[in-house]
Amino acid sequence: MDYTDDSFELNDGEKPYKIGHRCFYFSKEVLMFVGSCKYDKIYYSLFDQLVRSATSIGANVIEGKSGSSKKDWKNFFVIALKSANETKYWLCLIRESIEVNSNKINELIKEADEISKIIASIVIKAN
Fold first, then answer.
1. CA dist., res. 60 & res. 103, Å (int)
2. Are 19 and 122 in contact (CB under 8 A)?
3. 19-125 to CATH, choices 1.20.1440.60, 1.10.10.10, 3.20.20.70, 1.20.210.10
4. Alpha carbon distance 86, 89 (integer Å)
């Protein structure tokens, strides 16, 4: 699966159908958001944790799709779900602690929540 393929283009506001693609674009948006933020050194760990958890979502979804068994696949999706929930925590903490673009961070929180719900639904249906 190539996430940088030029034939895979989205229109403004359009979200990818496949969860792997959606997680990839979410990770990219978080990276761009963090790169645009100006913050004091004391807040570095918050942004570092945000990047780690946000990029972990898609990494675990993709690794799960390559799982050697259904149990292996499910375990990776559960980890992805936990990372999505952790990402919401860091985004909310940053929103409440630091002056940032509130529209963008609320958009990221909404997307993390939607991704979390999709992954939870996939895990539940797999039982």
1. 28
2. yes
3. 1.20.1440.60
4. 5
Residue with tokens 């696949």: 73
> Which residues lie below 8 Å from residue 25, measured CB to CB, with a gap of 6+?
10, 15, 16
Residue 121 backbone class (left: φ over 0; alpha: ψ -120 to 50; beta: rest): alpha
- Phi, psi of 30, rounded to the nearest 5 degrees: -65, -45
- Cβ pair 48, 54 in contact under 8 A: no
- Domain definitions of the chain by residue range: 19-125
Instruction: Let me know: does 31 contact 102? Beta carbons within 8 Å.
Output: no
Q: What is the pLDDT of residues 1-36, one digit of tens each?
A: 454 444 445 555 556 579 999 999 999 999 999 999
Residue-level pLDDT at 66 = 85
Sequence letter at residue 44: Y
